[in-house]
Amino acid sequence: MNSTEEKILPSLSISKSDLAKLPAADYKGEIHLIDSPEKIRKAVECLSRETIIGFDTETRPSFRKGQSYQVALMQLATHDKCFLIRLNKIGLPDGIKHILEDNNVLKIGVSLHDDFHNLSKIFTMTPGGFVDLQPYVKKFGIVDNSLSRIYGILFGQRISKSQRLTNWEAATLTPAQQAYASIDARSCITIYEYLQSGKFSPANSPYILPPAAEEDGTSI
Predict the structure, then answer these.
(1) CB neighbours of 157 closer than 8 A, spacing ≥ 6?
(2) Residue 3 falls within a domain, yes or no?
(3) How would you class 133 by CB atoms within 10 Å of its CB: exposed for 0-12, middle for 13-18, buried for 19 or more?
(4) For residue 169, what are the contacts with CB-CB under 8 A and spacing of at least 6?
(5) What is the CATH number of the domain that holds 147?
(6) In terms of residue numbers, what domain contains 120?
(7) CA distance 184 to 110
(8) d(CA 122, CA 153)
(9) Residue 220 belongs to a domain
(10) Tens digit of pLDDT for each residue in 94-120?
(11) Would the pTM of this model clear 0.70, i.e. be above it?
C-alpha cells in the first residue's frame, strides 16, 4: 500500500449490533493443555519450529472493588495448534520465555501493552518480535481496537465472548473455555497474514463509516 492510498483510505468500524448478527467463528485446530512440567518439552519443540505465533492471555475476572488476579493462562497458537499454558499451575517455563524473547520468531497479539504489564507483575522477561494488531490495522483504515470487531470487519464472522468472564483459575478448564482461548490466539495470525497478503480492500468493505461519524471521531 503506497502513501497515496493511505491518505484516501476510508475509516472502517463495525457496530455492536452488526457484529452480533454475524455467524460465529469456530476453532478447528488441535488444542494442547500445558498444565504439568511433563508437557512443556513437546510444546517448546513445536513452537520453536514456527516463524509466526499467535499470542494472548486470560485472567480470572474480578467482580469486587479492589480485588484483582494474576494472569492465569497464556495462549500460543500456530496455524493448526494452540498451546494453552496454565501459568497459575506451572509458572512460565524457561523454554516458553525464550520464545517470547526471541526477535526471530514473530508473535502477533492485541493490546500487548496490557498483556506485558500484567505479566511483568509475576515474571521477568523482555518481549521480542511482537506485533500489536491495534496500531497495525490502522494502516488499513480499521479504527476498532478489539479483536472481535477487527475479525468481524475482515471476515464477516463473530468471535464469541461468552467465556471471557469465566474462571481461568478453575481446576479444570472446560472445552468451551479452551476453544475460546484458542480461537483468540489463532485469529491474531489469521488477521495479520490476511492484511499482509494485500487481498483486503478497505474501499470495498461494508463497514465504511459515514463522513459525519469520521468527523466527530465516533464509531457506529
Answers:
(1) 22, 23, 24, 25, 151
(2) no
(3) buried
(4) 60, 69, 72, 88
(5) 3.30.420.10
(6) 9-201
(7) 10
(8) 35
(9) no
(10) 999 999 999 999 999 999 999 999 999
(11) yes
- State whether residue 38 is helix, strand or coil: helix
Sheet holding 130-132, edge to edge: 30-34, 81-86, 71-77, 52-59, 106-109, 130-132
- Give the span between the Cα atoms of 167 and 169, in whole angstroms: 5
Q: How many CA atoms lie within 13 A of 124 on its CB side?
A: 0
Angstrom CA distances, 14 to 145, 201, 206, stand at: 11, 16, 9
Residue type (1 letter), 41: R
CA atoms within 13 A on the CB side of 41: 2
Residue 74 scores a pLDDT above 80: yes
Query: Cell 488476579 appears where?
Result: 69
Q: At what angle do helices 147-155 and 175-197 cross, to 10 degrees?
A: 60
Query: How many residues are listed for the chain in this entry?
Result: 220
Residue 80, exposed/middle/buried by CB under 10 A (0-12, 13-18, 19+)? exposed
Provide the number of structural domains found in the chain: 1
Residue 40 is placed in which grid cell? 512443556
Residue 216 above 70 pLDDT? no
